Amino acid sequence: MARYIIKRVIAAILTLFVLVTIVFFLVRLMPGEPFTNPKLTPDVAANLRKYYGFDQPLIVQYFKYMGNLLRGDFGYSMHYTNKTVNYIIGQTFPYSADLGIRALCVAVSFGLILGILAARKRGTKIDFFCVMVAIIGTSMPDFIIGACLQYFFGIKWGLFPVAKYQGFQYTVLPACALSFYTLAHVSRIMRASMLEVTTQDYIKTARSKGLSEVRITAKHQIRNAIMPVMTILGPTVAAVLTGTFVIEAIFAIPGMGKYYVESVSNNDYSMTLGMTVFYGIFLVFCNLIVDILYGIADPRVRIGKK
Amino acid sequence: MQEPILSLKNVVYSFKTYGGTVKAVRDVSFDVRPGEILGIVGESGCGKSVTAQCIMRLNPEPPGFFEGGEILYKGQDVLKMNKKELREFRSKEIGFVFQDPMTSLNPTMRVGAQIEEVFRGHKDISRQEVKEKALEIMKLVGINNAEKRYRQYPHELSGGMKQRIMIAIALVSQPSVIICDEPTTSLDVTIEAQILELLLELREKLGTSIIMITHDLGVIAKICDRVVVMYGGKLMERGTVDEIYYETAHPYTKGLMESIARLDTAKDERLHPIEGTPPDLFAPPVGCPFAARCEHCMQICNELPPEEIHFSAEHSTVCWLQHEMAPETSFRRPHMDAGKEEI
């Protein structure tokens, strides 16, 4: 197991290296550059360029950046003067992660419940309801869901505050809005997977043992059906936890999403790179966890047992 | 003659599908007596498995449903059992061994736990006892190193070993009957021989009745006491193994036997397959289902379903060729007088 994890970590580092290299050169290909603000005089802009090392050849900049990256330094933001990228991530990530974890808990628990229910009651009204939720969740953009939640629960019925992030009741609406897509996705996959497992021979074996339907579902179906859900969960966790621009904007949450998106339009090279690397590390890490979880859920993929 | 432990009486079982109703089992009756091995033989799609699964009501319902008949187990009708009784019946009274051991065990559950699960819902037994029983049955079905196997997962076992586990699951609660649905079809010949040997041995030791479903007449010859031949969802012929082999009374049974390769088949001789395919069960033929493929088919065979004709206490067939008005053929057997009156 330890060897497997070491192998995976090495592979992850290689992946990240390729990712950083590609993104480093890609951001330079974007039209414009960081210091084109009309308020800056040419002299100031030139000074700034020199200060950030833009006067040096690209390849030198690249190696310098990689060197700093090895020390965990993402550099200074080129838009928010005097703030390092590390500082901004440190300030905003906790909010995004906090919201993301809440959203994930809602999405995974309700998604699984809906999926299992739908499969168990296939063809009934309950199934129809669950499928409807899945379709709505998948097809409705999150800003519409967010706005609807705000209007009904915030304004019309006054149950929850509409915006800001200052306590538990503030988190309810954004977490729900954020969770909806994942919830729909999870329930859809769980339903399909459960239905597939239902026709397996070992379910018939379980039935021939005289087990109750509840026990068959709990002991035999769910564990075998959960693998596809885990597969999508890796990337989903990374995406949900690192913040979403739209939800954070609608609910005025000081999360990462805004900085990531704006860094591109601001030509804030170090910020784009830093955020990408951060997201990349997170994604690779989540996928690693999922791979380890596979082994726990399914003994057939357990690796290097001694 | 011993009282039957399980008897099927005129069972009619169908499936509702988009294309119409599939009449999978049409008026099938047979008995299973204590301690005997009853073979059900027939080619694919003739209703063997559906019949077997009917007994434990393992066919998915819907789409499957009983159109009629009764299945009596020790005098109680399985079709009238409520959910709880049915669960109890499945867990205590009857076991089922499926065709493919590769897919019939839950891949994410330890083998031992899968055996022990049978005792779920038995209240008068402690965990320790359950474990002891599981280990005991594992040893009984010939699993070496049972303590170690007990903690393993199905993918760590070989095919033959998995089938032994399946048999252990079927037997652990000491049921009176186990149904084996082609238990050796997916195994290689050596393992097949071992498994058949094991079944015979278990019958000796435990006195369990076994219903053996197969398309392999070799398997039937090796272990069965009595045989039921099925075709097109109907019974064609039944009798003791000797009667079926040496006093074959139905052209279908004869066809089945001629299509097996034998040691004494001459090198340049070809096997004799039964030409054609089984009937469409969406609209089964009015007369004898085998008529379309039968070499000896007469006009009446297509028009009227034949009646059951008895030759001895055990041996009977459903074929017009055996009717007293039928022309003389090599199939003709002397009727049993008592049987005649019954008809």
Task: Give an overview in words.
The complex is a heterodimer of chains A (306) and B (343). Helix content of chain A is 75%, strand content 0%. Chain A is mainly α and 306 residues long. Chain A is flat. The model of chain A has no long low-confidence stretch (mean pLDDT 86). Chain B has 343 residues and is an alpha/beta fold. Helix content of chain B is 33%, strand content 22%. Chain B has an eight-stranded mixed beta sheet, with helices on both faces. A four-stranded antiparallel beta sheet of chain B has the order 2-1-4-5, with helices on one face.
Question: What's this entry about, in short?
Answer:
Chain A is mainly alpha-helical. Chain A has helices at 2-29, 42-51, 58-70, 85-120, 125-139, 142-156, 168-198, 201-208, 213-225, 227-241, 245-250, 257-265, 269-297.
Features:
heterodimer, A: 306 residues, mainly alpha, 13 helices, 75% helix, B: 343 residues, alpha/beta, eight-stranded mixed β-sheet, four-stranded antiparallel β-sheet, 33% helix
How is this fold's topology laid out?
The complex is a heterodimer of chains A (306) and B (343).
Chain A: H1 2-29, H2 42-51, H3 58-70, H4 85-120, H5 125-139, H6 142-156, H7 168-198, H8 201-208, H9 213-225, H10 227-241, H11 245-250, H12 257-265, H13 269-297
Helix pairs in contact in A: 1-13, 4-5, 4-7, 5-7, 6-7, 7-9, 7-10, 8-9, 10-13, 12-13
Chain B: E1 6-17, E2 20-32, E3 37-41, H1 48-56, E4 64-73, E5 76-77, H2 83-93, E6 94-97, H3 101-104, H4 111-116, H5 127-140, H6 146-150, H7 159-171, E7 177-181, H8 189-206, E8 209-214, H9 217-223, E9 226-231, E10 234-240, H10 241-246, H11 251-258, H12 299-303, E11 308-310, E12 316-318, H13 337-342
Largest sheet of chain B: 8 strands, mixed
Q: Biggest interface: chains and residue counts?
A: A-B, 21 and 30 residues
What is the tally of helical segments of chain A? 13
Low-confidence stretches of chain A: none
> Can you give the mean pLDDT of chain A?
86
Given as residue ranges, the uncertain stretches of chain B (5+ residues, pLDDT < 50) are 338-343
- Number-wise, the strands of chain B total 12
Average the pLDDT over all residues of chain B and give the rounded result.
Answer: 83
Assembly state (oligomeric): heterodimer
Order of helices and strands of chain A: HHHHHHHHHHHHH
What count of helical segments of chain B does DSSP give? 13
Percentage of residues assigned to helices of chain A: over 70%
